[in-house]
Amino acid sequence: MKPTQVLVALAAIAYAAPVSDDTKAKALEIDDDFPLAELEAYFEAHMNGETSEANSLHARQFSSSTYNQLTDGTPCRPVTMIYARGTTQAGNVGDPAAVGPVLFNNLASRIGLNNLAVQGVAYPANIAGYLAGGDAAGSRTMADLISRAATQCPSTKIIISGYSQGAQLVHNAAGMLSASVTNRVTAAVTFGDPKQKQAFGTIPSSRTRIFCRAGDNICDGGIIVTPAHSQYQQDAPAAAEWIAARSDPYYGAQVFVANINTMSHKVEWIFLKIKNSYHDNIERLAISKWAPQLSAEINLPDWVEDELREILIYEIIKTHMTQPFNRYSWIILRNMFGHDFDHHGKSATFLGHVFSVIAKIVLQTEDVDQQFWLDNMHLLTLGCFEIINDKTVDFTQGLLSDAGRLKAFFTPLLISAFPVVNGKLKNDEKTNSNHKKLRKHMTDRKSEKSSTLIKDEADFDDEDGPELKVEEEEEELGTRRTITFNSRKFNSVP
């Protein structure tokens, strides 16, 4: 039988068969007359085109077809990728010009080579496994590797990925994970995915990304390897960008906008403002509205909550917008003193620097004492405010130190500040009042939905100041909302 006849016959079978939602891989029973050898040869010939000179990118750090950095004794790294290659590809990740290594290099260039560990999935990667919906043993192997990464490296961000039949393995393996291990999966990314319409176990869709090119018959559940199925190296940069945004809290603006990779052209926002003017108030209101949205989108450690989570969110905003200091200080000072504070005075800037120190310690040190932060969460902001009253501490220079040195320098200051704050809460009415206001505002922000309009009942200094109207279209609701700023009010007009 000619290969073309084989393809026509099998394509008819593939399209006629119903698609199962069952994520468990099954063994394929093949009749002795089934032309498996011819189909294997066809797949190998066409899948080799996936690494052709026309499509390949020059490999850099990852230049091998086999990686076992989870099982070969390599120390745990911040990010661990479990990757399954496609049918007939070499090694356990594909040759250096295949999708896998191209993806690894793109990701390493964004988060750092020493921050990424790659573990390939060893499985036959033959046509029989593909026709079965993904090799059953390989699917179990991938699930075991994911579980091992979660246990062996408790702080690593786990990324699972695969191409073609490897994408089938990602779906199958995800369905075999326990709830606790599923929660450890930071992102699932597939290319040329035959199961693109199926879920990844119970991994939330916000943590998954599927790349399927127009004209790719494999993505449609077929068996014809079209040119589109051999071009996924071109999607590796976008995939790496998306992964980096979820695995590195300091990486780029992608942590903020879920669909940023769908933009046709890169847009750079430049904010022009006058220091110590009404512009500061506008900026505070804008980032106050933005922060709850980021908190809902960004993948921070589960234990990070309340004030500590807000500090980290505002540090990310600071990094993205290149602000001179963490603007969470504005939120705290506004809650404590109303508008009676200097947006760029020492209290605001030093408090912002302290918050940056905390963010660096929590996000960039391996042995974070979670219980220390959780036990003192209710005292955190007032403790930081207590520290900045020590005129001998220069936090502008301290920020240049690495996270380990910052931790050694800063933790004793907090340990000393917390008892002082506790004493003032018992004996000082003003401190107690500030504490209650800070905790109430934090609780209100925590419960606020990302779509809620920020309301500010503040009074402004310029009684005759002009009105500023901002109109925003809400396409989903089909309504227009006008936000009016004037000399006495900030309100929402439906």
Automatic annotation (TrEMBL):
Catalyzes the hydrolysis of complex carboxylic polyesters found in the cell wall of plants. Degrades cutin, a macromolecule that forms the structure of the plant cuticle. This is Cutinase. One of its GO terms (molecular function) is cutinase activity. Keywords: Disulfide bond, Hydrolase, Secreted, Serine esterase, Signal. One of its GO terms (biological process) is carbohydrate catabolic process. Residues 426-482 are annotated as: Disordered. It comes from Gibberella zeae (strain ATCC MYA-4620 / CBS 123657 / FGSC 9075 / NRRL 31084 / PH-1). PROSITE patterns: CUTINASE_1, CUTINASE_2. Belongs to the cutinase family. GO terms for cellular component: extracellular region. SUPFAM superfamilies: alpha/beta-Hydrolases (SSF53474). It comes from the Eukaryota. Its EC number is 3.1.1.74.
